[in-house]
Every structure is written in structure tokens, then in C-alpha cells.
Automatic annotation (TrEMBL):
Pfam family, one: AsnC_trans_reg
SMART domains per UniProt: HTH_ASNC (SM00344)
InterPro entries per record: ArsR-like_HTH, AsnC-type_HTH_dom, Dimeric_a/b-barrel, Tscrpt_reg_AsnC-like, Tscrpt_reg_AsnC/Lrp_C, Tscrpt_reg_HTH_AsnC-type_CS, WH-like_DNA-bd_sf, WH_DNA-bd_sf
Segments traversing the membrane: none
Coiled-coil stretches: none
Protein name: Lrp/AsnC family transcriptional regulator
Organism per entry: Aliishimia ponticola
UniProt keyword terms in alphabetical order: DNA-binding, Transcription, Transcription regulation
Amino acid sequence: MSVRIDATDRKILAELQRDAGQSLEDIAKAVGSSKTPVWNRIRKLRDAGVIGQQTVVLDAEALGFEACFFVLIRTSEHEADWQKTFLQALRDRPEVQEAHRLAGDIDYILKVRVKNARAYDAFYQALISEVRVHNVTALLSMEEIKATTALPLE
């Protein structure tokens, strides 16, 4: 379904990205409208698939997940069965927050959040026991400088 997005829709989306838990009244006030038209627009954007799953952002470090690794994977396997097994292994591991297939020398990059280096090693050992990879490089993030899920709507 295709949907036209106008300036008011963009303002609503920006407000929802900033804080999806705010009241409809607060969103309407921020975008200069009333509640009913804002609710109808939000519903239209949800129905069109522009607004997806709503969730809560947790503080990983506050919960003890102090290590964030970016894992670069090269593979010599490109068959459909290998890829299916690999992708399922990634989906089955909650430590994998993001996974991307890349163009270039690296085939995949993963963002893996764990409590510590020992937990990363357990993740790594489990992954390579399930699926063959040619080369794995793990990069430990020393500091998160910026992290956002917000799209630049303006």
C-alpha cells in the first residue's frame, strides 16, 4: 500500500520517533493539530506499514551488557542451504542485535551485545559449531558515540 506523506505526517512521525509513549494530546499539541485528525493520520501510517512495531529502548549497560562487538564475517560458502542455516543461526541468537549482508570484501557484519568477552567467546564458539565461516574478525566497541533508530525526516 502506498501512502502520501505530507508535512504534518512528518511532524507526527518525528514526535513518535522522539517518544512513542507520549500521549496523543501531546503529539497533537506538538504538531499544531487536534487529537482526532492526528489519531487518524497515525492509523493511516500504521495501516500503510510506515509505522512498524513499537518497542522500548533499554539501557544495555544498566542491564549488565557492557560489551558491544562488531563482527565481520567472510565466507567461502554461498549456496542457498548454507545461507539458510547461517541466517537461522543468527535469528536464534538474541545477542545479535543487527545483521547485514554487505557488498565488498566482507560478507556480513553483526552487532553483538553481550555481558563481557567471555560471553562473546561463548557466542562465537556456538556460531562456528553450527555454521562454517572462512574468517571472523571481532571488533570491540570502546565507546558508543551515537546510537539512534530515528530517521532524518526533515
